Each structure stands twice: as structure tokens, then as C-alpha cells.
Amino acid sequence: MSYTIETIAERIGARRVGDTPATIDWLLTDSRSLSFPEETLFFALTTKRNDGARYIPDLYSRGVRNFVVSKETYKAIENGQLTIDNSMQRDSAQPIVNCQLSTVNFLVVANPLKALQKLAEQHREQFQIPVIGITGSNGKTIVKEWLHQLLSPERVIVRSPRSYNSQIGVPLSVWQMNEQSELAIFEAGISEMGEMRALQNIIKPTIGILTNIGGAHQENFFSLQEKCMEKLTLFKNCDVVIYNGDDEFISNCVAKSMLSAREIAWSRKDMERPLFISKVEKKEDCTVISYRYLEMDNTFMLPFIDDASIENSLNCLAACLYLMLPAEKITERMTTLEPVAMRLEVKEGKNGCLLINDSYNSDLASLDIALDFLYRRSQSNGLKRTLILSDILETGQNAPTLYRKVSQLINSRGIERIIGVGNEIASCAARFDIEKAFYPNTEALLRAISRGELRLENEIILIKGARQFGFDALTEELEKKVHETILEVNLGAADELARQLRLRDMGGIIVVDFIDMSLAEDRQKLYERMCHNMESDRARHNILPLSKFGLMQITRQRVRPAMDVMVEETCPTCGGSGKIKSSLLFVDTLRDKVDTLSTKLGIKRFTLQVHPYVAAYITKGFISVKAQWQFKYGLGIK
To answer: Given Cys at both, which of 149, 235, 456, 532 links 208, Cβ 3.0 to 4.6 Å?
Structure first.
């Protein structure tokens, strides 16, 4: 949704300096995230650690011509020099006097952050759609993403990017609302008293969800109750509030807050609650949940078993029921809920590639965020930047206009190669003037990769697609599997083991324990590799296939058999100048002598005089050699 610079100046109460015509589509607070400079309005925010005004010269050089600045900042500009504290000086900072001020629009305000929030408030008032506001100590992002998964097939949804829930993040999130939006889902997070009122004015939720209350960000609150009451401020004018009715602390805080909203307090204990959870059955890898709502009983399966996920799913269930999503669709979609880790998840790929997996949804705003993430990750590793993108669906824009913006986005992020999937993006191939390839569907792309027609090597790859394109199969194909890495380690170990055996005249039985060889095909590869490595071995050997535990047994005969076995020991008495028979062999000879005395000569009592070393050996232990002789022959030996 676009606004003229005149309209924005009026809505935020700014003094406009400059008369360059401009239409604004994008708000910017971080100079690193610039995409469409001509349509961008930069807010020069001042924080504890930085001052956004110092990045104005750089943004001007990159094409930005519209800025919201404080009165102090503009005074410095008016004087022809931008004063920057030496402790914050960076090499990239330049005097702003270099800018041609006649081509720039400055909106001068008392506080750029307050102006940003006020603009978002004014923008929010343009829409009369359901808006879900989520707050709590934990689980906000998961509930938001799961609600999007559950509700997006029927509705065009706008939601907070990543965890944009702060005083800056919430206005940027709300700004994404446009004419096509049918439902909005925003997070709200606070760290001190008084912050939630500003966020409530911006979000103006019609549906409120309180996930839970914990110790996070507690340092600026006198008590947990004070923090909970502050969070409940978000729901001041809501139509309905959703929370865990079994949490006595939250229930008491809701009662004290005197909210006028209807309550959907779900409960696993109280059958009188509007949403009663009658049964929660945890199985090995899923949880089956039965519930009653408006006197109707239903069940769904959740593909998680941890308590946090169960609680988050129940908050989602309540919201879906209030929005009248049919129970059968809830049951169907709950089984397909995916971990939120799929959002911008970085994985190691095959052939030296690095994968950024965002195969979850596809829209222009989330594409901008994902490309920004890719750009920052690629700056340190030097890999080629590649984008795999599906058709962007349900935007309300015609294809040429949409993919012209996509082309501008990828050019601004330095993308070097695009691989498009879908008929719409393929029809706009001429819009992209970089290395490119297009396929009608994901199956065609997978076939091209498997046949070697499309090579992906030493690239950082953003995989960005709508869910219906099934890019999870593409991610699985490109990902370097953990077991493949383990197999490579084991194959390398087999190569080195075979080399060492060929170098050494070593014989006997050798047992090798290879790590994590659970797959039969991997065990076979390793066995064949070892057999191949040992083909040139001069010694006779035999290699047995690996057991299911990963054990390999090798029997090997020495090339030069031993001709003379030395069994003598160094004499301890003469200091090593002579050799003596080993104690073990001498005791065997002595036993033969004792046997002769006892059985052949009939002598039952005698005194044995031996070296102290031998005496110590034959008398050692409770059942010593001497005791064994006495018991066997019935002797009295001294």
C-alpha cells in the first residue's frame, strides 16, 4: 500500500524540507536491508548503541531520497556538517554536506521512533479485518507461525516477520498490511513498564492470545503480576481473549484487568469452560488430543509430544475455532504442523553448497527478509549467491508487475543465479538479466538435478517457495545427509587402515568398529571399498562383511613367518649380562619334577629350594600354584 510523501508528513505531524515528489512503499530502519531505494523512507532512529543519522550519506549514495530525522539531526544538516561522536565514528561515515539537499525530502520530527509508531497507527486504521495479537513470555513466534499454517489456505494473511515484536519491529510488521490482507497476526513483546500501550495502539488486535507468563525480561518489573498486567494491556479493546484457564495466576490477572472481551479460556480440568480438553494421549512420536467446543466433540493428532508444543497447539485450536475453521480441517492440518525451525534454517548442502531453507511460504515481504539473510551470510564465505524461487501466489498483483519487483529485489541483494519453479515466474523470465533456469514444477527440477543437467556447486542457495510446491523434497535432495558425512569418514578410515596393513608385516585377527553404520547399503559400500583396497596386499587375508553393529573382521597371515621364537628373559641377578628361562616356562618344568617325585617315587613331603622370583610366583594368591600342587598330589611342600 503506497502513500505520497506529503500524506506521510501530514500523518506524522512532520515539517517537510524538500519538495521532490515521492511515493513510499517501504519503511527502513536498518541501512543493510535496503531493497527499493526510490520507494523507501528511512527513519534515522537513535538507540543506546547507535545513531541512524550517520548512515544517511551512504543511503543517499545508494539512491534513497526520503528521510525522517530529529530536529537536532536536521540542525546539523542545515549547518552543513553532521556531528558524530568520536566513539561511534566508523570509516563508512561521511560528512553529509556532500549530499545535494535540493533532491532530498527531510521530514523533521521531535522523535523519529514516535513518528514511525504514529505512521503505523494511522496505517492500521485503514483496515477492518481480524487482527490477532499474541503476547507472553514464550511461544509467541510458534503460535503465530502455526496459525499461519492452519489458516493460510483460506485467507491472505500478513504476519510479523521472524520475531519482529519490539517497539521498532511491530510498526514495521503492521506496515505490511495491504488491500489484499484478510487476516493479520502480530507478536508483541515488552521489556519494561509502559511499552505495551504503544504496541496496543499500533496493533489494535481484535483477537488476543496470551501464551504464558515466565521470568523472561523480568529485571524491569517489580513482580510477575505487574508484568502480566502490563501484557494484558494489549487486549484492552479485543473482541475475544484466549488463554490457559488452568493457569491460576493468569486467570487471576485476567479477572483483575477487567477486560470487556469475551474469554476462551481452554481447560483440561474444568468441563464448564467454553473449550474443554477432555483427553491428551502422548504416543511415541505424536499426541492425540480430544476436545469439546460448543457441545461438539472432536479429536486431532499433533506431530509433537512435548508439553510446550501441546500448549501452543491448544492456543491455536481456540483461535481457529473462534474464526470458524471447520473441525475436520483443523484435524487435517494439525497433523501437518511443521517445526518453526524451517524458517530460514541453514544446512550444509552437497558439493560444497550451503542451503538456506525457507520452503514454507512465499510472498514479497518474506522474500525480502530471506534475501537480506542470504546476503549477510554470503559476505563471509565467498560462495556464489543462488535463489530457487517458486511462483508467488495470491498477491493480487499481475505477474509482470510482481516479478519486476522480484527482479529488483534480487539485483539489490547481488543474486547471481535464479532457478524458477512454476508457470508464472517462467512466463516472466525476460525480467531477470542474470544466470537463470526455469522449470514447470518441482518434479522437473528434481529430474534435472538427478540427471546432471543442472549442477549446483560451491553456492549459497536460498530455497524459497510456497508450500504447495513441495520444496521440502528439493531441500532433502540438496542437503548433505548426516549419514553421508559419517560414511565419508568411515571410507577414509578404511583407506588408511588398508594402507597401514600393506606397509606392516602384521598377522592375526583384526576387528574394526566403524561408527554409526546403521544402513545396509552403507555397510556394503564400506565392505567393497576395503576389499578393493586390499587387492594389492601380498599377504593372504580374508575380509568378512560388516555386522549390523558396524564390526568388520579381517584375518591376515604374515608375509614372513617367524622362524625362531625367543622365550628367554634377561637375568635379573647378573644385571642383564645373561639370559634365563622365563618364569612361566620354568614353573612348567618344576611341575613335571614334582609330579615325578609324587607319582613315581612316592615322596609326599619335601623341601623345595628355588630363586626368590620363582618362589614369589608359585606362592602368589589365595589359590597359588603351590596350593594347587598340594591339593592335587596330597603333598606337604615347604
So the answer is: 235
